[in-house]
TrEMBL record, chain A:
Its cofactor is thiamine diphosphate. It holds the Pfam family Transketolase_N. InterPro entries: THDP-binding, Transketolase_CS, Transketolase_N. This is Putative transketolase N-terminal section. One of its GO terms (molecular function) is transketolase activity.
Automatic annotation (TrEMBL), chain B:
SUPFAM superfamilies: Thiamin diphosphate-binding fold (THDP-binding), TK C-terminal domain-like. Its cofactor is thiamine diphosphate. It comes from [Clostridium] ultunense Esp. This is Putative transketolase C-terminal section. Keywords: Thiamine pyrophosphate, Transferase. InterPro entries: PDH/Transketolase, THDP-binding, Transketo_C/PFOR_II, Transketolase-like_Pyr-bd, Transketolase_C. Its EC number is 2.2.1.1. GO terms for molecular function: transketolase activity. Coiled coil: none annotated.
Length: 271, 315
């Protein structure tokens, strides 16, 4: 797919995300916007998916370990046709399959129920291990927040992924440098993420501008043999909406109608 | 009751056998493959055995990932770590999506002995019971454990199997069906609902109570969730008093599961025997059973005391 089209998709689905959160009056806009290029690159270019048969065994798997960025996943899945776009405005509402955090039992296309930080990456590691025993070419992708790296389980999973030489696993860090209580550096500094993953035995690729879809695609295309891959994408929280960018306050706050209008205007949405 | 075998041994042998007939079965362990007896499976099927190292949280999640790829993972470690340390992983990664993962945890209860209270899980049943959709089995002996392992593998959804370290008597072979209790002895004065290593003690105590002309029924509730409501109601109505007996805290375990069934059917006097809201400690299993009043003499005494004080027993 042409880069321009992918970039247009990012803009469009940023708007979808913000509308969902506005309608729900709750949700996590900042981290949904920061990972938009990552998830678009995966679902529109890189992953082998089959929306008509969401349980196709040969599909690549995606685990949103930072489950609070569910709006980004839902916007993509709806756009890909896993379910009707009509239900996007039921996000977080009673009886909606679009739960506050992804629930695989309720929504087609969700490969793992996540939301409790640190757990998704272990599930992804197990999936990659399963694909290895089955000797198939299924690839597993998981996206973590940089705040999530404070969970000890993330490093247990890193140890196991390298130990079992899971070169079919790609761990992507959405490194937007902010978490609920402040900057990740201030709250609990994880230190040098790249050297940590290298020390655990990963091939590490740093993406200087994680909101440039070309750079993300290049990093995803790097072939690695015999060890798992970690892509550290340096992103901007709230990317695409000037008043939200790099603002910690937009981690888990909904936009009011006026803010939504301003944001959609900026993203070039009409009506 | 001559032969003594631990339920963890039965599990290890059953799992290895299961591996032969079902190539989807895989095993995960957290550096306790000898203690949990999963090393038998490991030797036979090295490509389907995964040591997660001393990292229970990740082991739990990896099992979920393997189940998503179509495998039937059996996860094993000590009960205290598998259900305690990794509780929230079990709750959110296994329970919430109803993953097809089997938790077969050994070294539960005080019979673990010398390792002491830090390692003796007395709350694992309670922790697993509050997870919606979790099936809980606490087998009483070698044969029942063997059958439980096979039943769990054919069952779709999460199952917790509670295993013990200490060798225990091999009992009479009975039919095994998840969710269906077994009547091991009939009686009408008193019923003992029990599970696990307490089953054989209940049978012995029931024999001894004959001398006092007390007719005791013994019901083995190997499945604690879903509990066999019918058998509980039936024996509660037929017997004048109810005792529950378990090697677990009296809070949240088998006793509470039985009481929950009966709470809406009027006044049934119930005595819950088990660990009375205390931690375990080091010692020989028999010393610990005596201290926590789960040896046969103490059980007998407590049942007699209950009958005399609470129960209006007609002579």
């Amino acid at each position: 797919m042409e880069i321009k089209i992918l970039e247009g998709k990012c803009k469009e689905l940023r708007g979808t995300v913000l509308k969902m959160i506005n309608k729900a009056s709750s949700g996590h806009p900042g981290g949904s916007l920061s990972m938009m290029e990552i998830i678009i690159a995966l679902y529109y270019q890189k992953m082998r998916i089959n929306p008509e048969n969401p349980y196709d065994n040969s599909r690549d798997r995606f685990v949103l370990s930072k489950g609070h960025a569910a709006p980004a996943l839902y916007a993509v899945l709806a756009d890909k046709g896993y379910f009707s776009k009509d239900i996007l405005d039921t996000f977080r509402a009673f009886n909606s399959p679009l739960q506050g955090h992804p629930d695989k039992k309720k929504l087609k296309g969700v490969d793992a129920s996540t939301g409790s930080l640190g757990q998704g990456v272990s599930i992804a590691t197990g999936m990659a291990l399963g694909a290895k025993i089955l000797n198939n070419d299924v690839k597993v992708y998981t996206v973590l927040g940089d705040g999530e790296l404070q969970e000890g389980q993330v490093w247990e999973a890193a140890m196991a992924a390298a130990h079992y030489k899971l070169d079919n696993l790609t761990v992507i860090i959405d490194n937007n440098r902010l978490q609920i209580d402040g900057s990740t550096e201030e709250v609990m500094d994880v230190g040098n993420i790249a050297s940590k993953y290298k020390a655990f035995g990963f091939e590490v690729i740093e993406v200087e501008d994680g909101n440039d879809i070309r750079e993300i695609l290049e990093a995803l295309d790097v072939e690695v043999k015999g060890k798992p891959k970690c892509i550290i994408a340096h992103t901007i929280k709230g990317k695409g909406v000037s008043f939200m960018e790099n603002q910690v306050g937009w981690h888990g706050k909904a936009l009011n109608d006026e803010e939504l209008k301003m944001a959609l205007d900026e993203l070039g949405w009409e009506g | 009751m001559s032969k003594l075998v631990a339920t963890r041994v039965a599990f290890g042998e059953a799992l290895a056998k299961l591996g032969e007939v079902n190539d989807k079965v895989v095993a995960l362990n957290a550096d306790l493959s000898g203690a949990t007896m999963t090393n038998i499976f490991e030797k036979k099927f090295p490509g389907r055995f995964f040591n997660a190292g001393i990292a229970e949280a990740n082991m739990t999640g990896m099992a979920v990932g393997l189940s998503e790829m179509g495998f039937i993972p059996f996860v094993s470690t000590f009960a205290i770590f598998g259900t305690g340390r990794a509780y929230e992983q079990v709750r959110n990664s296994i329970g919430y999506p109803h993953s097809n993962v089997k938790l077969a945890m050994s070294h539960s209860g005080i019979n673990l002995g010398e390792d002491g209270g830090s390692h003796q899980a007395i709350e694992d049943i309670a922790l697993m019971r509050v997870i919606p959709g979790m099936t809980i089995i606490c087998p009483s002996d070698f044969i029942e454990t063997y059958k439980a392992v096979f039943a769990a593998a054919s069952f779709d959804g999460p199952v917790y199997i509670r295993l013990a370290r200490m060798p225990s008597p091999v009992l009479k072979d009975m039919p095994f069906e998840i969710g269906k209790g077994n009547v091991l002895k009939d009686g009408d004065d008193l019923v003992i609902f029990t599970c696990g290593l307490m089953v054989h003690k209940a049978l012995n105590v029931a024999e001894r109570l004959k001398e006092d002309n007390i007719s005791v029924a013994v019901v083995n509730l190997h499945t604690i969730k879903p509990i066999d409501k019918n058998i509980i109601k039936k024996y509660a109505n037929n017997c004048k008093a109810i005792v529950t007996l378990e090697e677990h805290s009296v809070i949240g375990g088998l006793g509470d599961a039985v009481a929950e069934v009966l709470i809406k059917y009027g006044s049934h006097p119930i005595k819950k025997l088990g660990i009375q809201d205390k931690f375990g400690q080091s010692g020989k299993p028999e010393e610990l059973f005596r201290h926590y009043r789960l040896d046969e003499d103490s059980i007998l005494e407590d049942i007699k005391g209950f009958i005399n004080s609470k129960c209006d027993r007609k002579e």
